[in-house]
Amino acid sequence: MTIPSQHAARIVDPKAYADGSIYETYKWLRRNDPLGWVRDAAYDPFRVVTRYQDVQEISRQNQLFHNGPNAVLTSIASKKKMQEITGGNSSPIKSLVDMDPPQHEKYRSLTSSWFQPGNLRNFEGSIRTIARALVADMLATGGECDFAKVVSFRYPLLVIMLILGLPPEDEALMLKLTQEMFGSTDPELNARGNSTLSIKDDDAKLDLSAITAMMQYFDKLTAERRASPTSDLASVIANARIDGEPIPYLEMMGYYVISATAGHDTTSASTGGAMWALAENPGEFAKLKADPSLLSGLVDEAIRWTTPVKHFMRRAVEDTEVGGIPVARDDWLMLCYGSANRDDDAFPDPDSFRIDRKPNRHVAFGYGAHLCLGQYLGRLEMRILFEELLPHLKSVELAGPPAMSEALFVNGPKRVPIRFTPN
Ligand code: HEM
Predict the structure, then answer these.
(1) Could you tell me if the CB of 402 is within 6 A of ligand 1?
(2) What is the pTM of this model?
(3) 380 near 71, Cβ under 8 Å?
(4) Could you report the average pLDDT of every consecutive run of 10 residues in the chain (423 residues)?
(5) Which of 190, 196, 305, 396: disulfide with 405, CB 3.0–4.6 Å?
(6) Total domain count for the chain?
(7) Residue 18 is part of which domain span?
(8) For position 226, which CATH number holds?
(9) How would you write 386-397 as a 3-class SS string?
(10) Ligand 1 centre and the CA of 140: distance in Å?
(11) Are 246 and 268 within 8 A, CB to CB?
C-alpha cells in the first residue's frame, strides 16, 4: 500500500526525527502497513520496513537484499549530481556499507579482527585518559552544563583520532573535513559547527573540495604508515592486501572515511542519550548508583533508546517475500532501526528506559553481514566514560528542555542541559 500522506511526509522530514513524531508514524506503520510505500517526488519510490522481525529477516539475507548502489536514502537530484561529478557513480568513494557479496566480505575481513575486544583492550588506557579529561571539564562547570557540548559531541572524535593514529593537533581539521563532507541537515548544528553529521541528506552539502582535501590528508598518512607501520587502524588499512594486491585507491579512501565518520555522531548520540535518560529517570540513576554492575545494561539500553542510526537501505535482487508480504525484485527498502527497537512484539514497554532490560537484543547496530564493525568500540567508549563519571555524580536532573538534531539518517541529542551535584 501507499502510506497515507501525513505519515509518508514524516518519513522524509528531518524535523519529525527531532520532535519525536516519527515514533507515532512508526507505530502506525507497524500495526497497519509494515512494508508500506513512500511515493515522494524527490525520491525513487521505497518501502518502509518497521517491524523488528522484518528488519532482521532482510538484514540476515545479504545475498538477496543488497546495499549498493545507495545504502542511505538519497534524493533523485543528489544521485544525478553525484553521477555528473563522478562520471557515472552514485558515490565518490566506495565504503563497506556500499558493498555486497563477494566484495564486502573480503574488505570487512581486513579489519574485523582489529575491531575485536581483544585488540581494543590495548587502547583502553588511552581512551580512559580522554574520558577523564572530559569528566574533569564537566566537573569544572560547577554543577550545570550542556552535556552535549562539554562531553558527548567531543568524546568520539577524540577516540577516533586515537584509533586511527592521528595527532591530537589535527582534531579541528578532522572535524572540519568530516563536517564539510557530511554537512548536517540541522540548521542550528550547521551554524554552531558541531559534529552531528548526516550523510547525503542534503545534496547542497556534497562538497567535492572537502573530499579532495580529505583524500590528500589520507594519502600522506598512507605513505607514513607504509614506511613505518604501528598498531593503529590506519596502519592496517594502508598495508591491506586483497588477493595479494594493495587495495584500490577509492576503496582505500572509503575505508579511511568510514572509519573516521561511522563512529562519530553515532557514539555522540548514544552517549548524550544515556545522560538525557538518566537525568529524566532518577529511579534508573539510583539503581545504577546502587549497583554499578548495571553499567553494561545502561550502555545497551541507551543505544536502543536513542537508536542513533535511523535507517539503512536495501534493494531486493529477486522476487521474494518478507513476513508473508510479497516483495518484488528491485524494490528499495528502508530498514527503520528506530521502529524495530520500539516494537512491542520484541520489547515489553518499549518506550520506557530500563537499564536492567533483559534480554535487550536491539538492532541499533544493525544485523547480519553488515552488523556494525565498531559495536565493541562504541560500547567500550560509553562504558569507560560512565565508569569515570558516575563516582563523581551524586545526582543529576535536566536543567532545561533537551533537544534532538534534525536528520533522517543519524540523529540524536544536540542539547542536554543538566544540573548535577558532584560527590
Ligand atoms: C553507538 C554507536 C554506533 C551505532 C549505533 C552504530 C550503528 C551502525 C549501524 C546501524 C550499521 C549498519 C549495520 C547494518 O547494515 O546491519 C553500522 C555499520 C558500521 N559501523 Fe557502526 N555504529 C556505532 C559505532 C561505530 C563505531 C565506534 C565505529 C568505528 C569507528 C563504527 C564503524 C562501523 C562500520 C565500519 C560499519 C560498516 C560495516 C559493514 O558494512 O560491514 N560504528 N553501524
Answers:
(1) no
(2) 0.95
(3) no
(4) 96 97 98 98 97 98 96 91 78 86 97 98 98 98 97 95 92 77 66 40 54 87 97 97 92 90 92 98 98 98 98 98 98 98 98 98 98 98 98 98 95 96 94
(5) 196
(6) 1
(7) 5-422
(8) 1.10.630.10
(9) HHHHHHHEEEEE
(10) 33
(11) no
